[in-house]
Every structure is written in C-alpha cells, then in structure tokens.
Model the fold of this input.
Amino acid sequence: MRPTALVYSAALSQHILRDTHPMRPMRLRLTAELIQAYGAIGPGRGQLAAPRPATDEEVLLFHTKEYLNAVKDFSKGERLHEADRYNFAEAGDNPIYPGMYEAAALSTGASIRAVELLMSDAVNVACNFSGGLHHAMPRHASGFCVFDDPVIAIKAMANRGLKVAYVDIDCHHGDGVQYGFYDTPQVLTISLHESGRYLFPGTGFVEELGAGRGRGYSVNVPLAPFTDDEVYLWAFREIVPPLITAFKPDVLVTQVGIDTHFNDPLTHLQLSVQGFAQVVGELGALSPGKWLMLGGGGYDMSAVMRGWTMAFGKCLDTDWPNQIPASIQEKYSIHSLKDSALPDLTQRQRSDARQAAEQTVADVKRTIFPFHGLAGLV
Done:
C-alpha cells in the first residue's frame, strides 16, 4: 500500500457559486464521507491532511497581478462593473459570489499542500479532489475555474527541475494547463476528452501539439459523443502508457474529472464509474513513485462520490467492496459502488464512437509519437 494523503477539510465544500449552478462543492463533502465510511483514513490506510490557502506568490506563478487583485475585489463586492473584463457574469459559467477569492485560494492551496507532502517524501500519493480546475487562464476565469491549480502545482514542481507528466481525463479539454506549458518539453500534457466539436471549450484537437521546444509535448485525444468504457480504455491504452514510458517523468499529475459518466448532465461520453476507476488504476500503475491526483468536473453527485471513492482506493492499491457502507446507504439511498446498469447505446452509436477513436489514435501516433522515439509504434 502506497503512503497516501487526502487533502481535505469541510471548508473546501461550503461555498455556493449560485443556487442553480451545476458546480456544487458539496460533492467534496459527500466524497469524503464515503471515503471515510470505507475506513480509508486511519492507521495502515490513508492520512488526512488539512489544506491551506495559496499565497499571492503562488497564485502569481501563473496568473497576473491585475487578475489576482480583481478576484480579491470582486469577492468583496467591489469593482463589479468590471466583471465581464475578466469573464465573470452573474448568470454565466463564472459567477461572482461572496468569499470567491478565499474559496479559490483554499482549493489552490490544497493542491500546493499536496505538492509539499510529495516533495517532503511524507507520502508517495497526494490527492486533492477540490483541485483540477483546469480552464482558468492567466488573466481571466473560465469554465467554473477561478485559479488554475494544476498549472500552479506543476510549476511549483517544475521550478525544482522536475519533469512532470500531466494526464487529464476530464470530459472537457484541459485547455488552461495546455496553455501553461505549450512551449516547454519539461512538462508533457495529455488530455483525453470529448471533442471540442461538441463540447466546451471548443479546443483540444490533435494538431494542438505544442510550440517551439515544446512541440510534441502537448497531446490531445478528442473522442466522439457516446464513447463507452471499451472504446475509451482502448484509446487510453494505445496512447498514454507508451508516451509516459518514453517521457520518463519524475512526477505524475492526474486530473480525474468524472464528468465522463453516462449520467453527467453536461456531457456526452458514456463511461461507468468502474470504467473510470479502471483508467485511474492504470494511471497509478504508470506513476514513477510520486503521484498527485486532482479532481475536476463531475456534476452527477452519485457518480462523483462513488467514482472518486474508487479512485482514492486506487491510490491505496485497494478495491472497496461493492456494497456501500450502511451509514451511507441510509443517508443517501445509494447501495452499490459500481454502476449496476450501463448505458443502452445503439450499434450505430458504438460504431461511430469506435471509428472516431481509431482515427484520433492514428492521428496522434502519426503526429506525436515520432517526437518521443515511438515512430515504430505508429
């Protein structure tokens, strides 16, 4: 069992973006409850670590001072007439709410705390499900994300001279992280996601492969709607293990958004929680010894709490019993960890998804693999 930390406190789950907003931080509390109900925290299991707010210096590893100050002011109800300048809007993806800066600083600081635990050799795996907010850009908010904690956490490690591999399995393209490392070979970014032809942010195509010395180190695997476990796992295995093995990172960072689930209200991929967990387990097997796991999207509460509990089990090299602990069953009427019913896809949907994945995999192998000495696998 790998020494593992879960960075969490109730403070991470108490803010509300907007009553009707799909991003509901309470999902973090639900996940923590289920993880603890399985006995995952304690002697011989994982340890619980308290988060801390990110400092200004840490936020400025990626974001501009102007943007940081705007977030602080908006959070206090000041300068609201400038909100649209930074991509905030009351009815949009990125609403301003009281305590917004404090919430964003704490989730970002939780990722930095996870990095500190890894770098001090206190643990081999550190998990922050409040993180993975991969859309925020240096000068503006985007896609429910105020600060881009994956970029900030990776920069904290890259500044130590470490090579970092980042694999993003959120249904949405990890555009902010790609942007943050687009011109460097020190960080390999791989994003598997629903194609930008169908889903926000409209990016993440194979031809976005990096620039300058970083050419070949930004990898995108866009997939078609209705991609299920079988097709997703096939595409993942064709692309991710060879690239990680060739890159030889010092640290593996994974963004494990579970909005790929077939019940997610915002997306169109068709993964089950057990398919998702299989991917996370295979990522863990690729870890070079240091593994930072971050959260991400996920808007069906049952899928989130079950999937992330299974993911934390993978950190501990443990598969939990399928029967949900009685205390959680009684409280939330959820009985099975795994999905008992899978999506009912038509043969045409399966065929189209498979064909699209095969084309994407072929394109990635043709354009990316030669940069990594993998031309023989094309």
Notes: Residues 4-377 form a domain with the Arginase; Chain A fold (CATH 3.40.800.20). The mean pLDDT is 97.
